[in-house]
């Protein structure tokens, strides 16, 4: 893979994660405020962004030749996506018990950001 293609995957990966976090917050607030305007469309866009982030992340892993740090980051990212989905579904159905998933979500997001920006890692 050439440098331009890698840079494209890298930018798509970062952009989709930024949009994922933003759209997650918007959907959470819409569900919390019981606003049903365009929720199905936003959920579909969220699933598309999940797919794009996973595909671009695997492409980046391929270029880096699957180092352990990024494999762990990918697994924690999947846990983050899972916790985001559980939070949204429980909020939509007005169920209780999201606090543990909020803890998992915030912890996983913190770890993913730290690993993604190589904070505390020696190269």
TrEMBL record:
<keyword id="KW-0378">Hydrolase</keyword>
<protein>
    <submittedName>
        <fullName>Membrane protein implicated in regulation of membrane protease activity</fullName>
    </submittedName>
</protein>
<dbReference type="GO" id="GO:0006508">
    <property type="term" value="P:proteolysis"/>
</dbReference>
<feature type="transmembrane region" description="Helical">
    <location>
        <begin position="100"/>
        <end position="121"/>
    </location>
</feature>
<keyword id="KW-0645">Protease</keyword>
<keyword id="KW-1133">Transmembrane helix</keyword>
<keyword id="KW-0472">Membrane</keyword>
<dbReference type="InterPro" id="IPR010899">
    <property type="entry name" value="UPF0344"/>
</dbReference>
<feature type="transmembrane region" description="Helical">
    <location>
        <begin position="45"/>
        <end position="64"/>
    </location>
</feature>
<feature type="transmembrane region" description="Helical">
    <location>
        <begin position="12"/>
        <end position="33"/>
    </location>
</feature>
<keyword id="KW-1003">Cell membrane</keyword>
<keyword id="KW-0812">Transmembrane</keyword>
<dbReference type="Pfam" id="PF07457">
    <property type="entry name" value="DUF1516"/>
</dbReference>
<dbReference type="GO" id="GO:0008233">
    <property type="term" value="F:peptidase activity"/>
</dbReference>
């Amino acid at each position: 893979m050439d440098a331009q293609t890698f840079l494209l995957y890298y930018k798509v990966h970062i952009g989709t994660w930024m949009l994922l976090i933003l759209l997650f917050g918007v959907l959470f607030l819409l569900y919390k405020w019981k606003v049903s305007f365009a929720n199905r469309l936003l959920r579909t866009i969220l699933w598309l962004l999940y797919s794009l982030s996973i595909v671009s992340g695997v492409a980046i892993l391929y270029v880096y030749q699957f180092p352990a740090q990024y494999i762990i980051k990918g697994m924690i990212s999947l846990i983050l996506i899972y916790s985001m989905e559980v939070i949204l579904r429980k909020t939509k159905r007005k169920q209780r018990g999201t606090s543990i998933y909020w803890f998992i979500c915030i912890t996983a997001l913190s770890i993913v950001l730290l690993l993604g920006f190589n904070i505390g890692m020696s190269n």
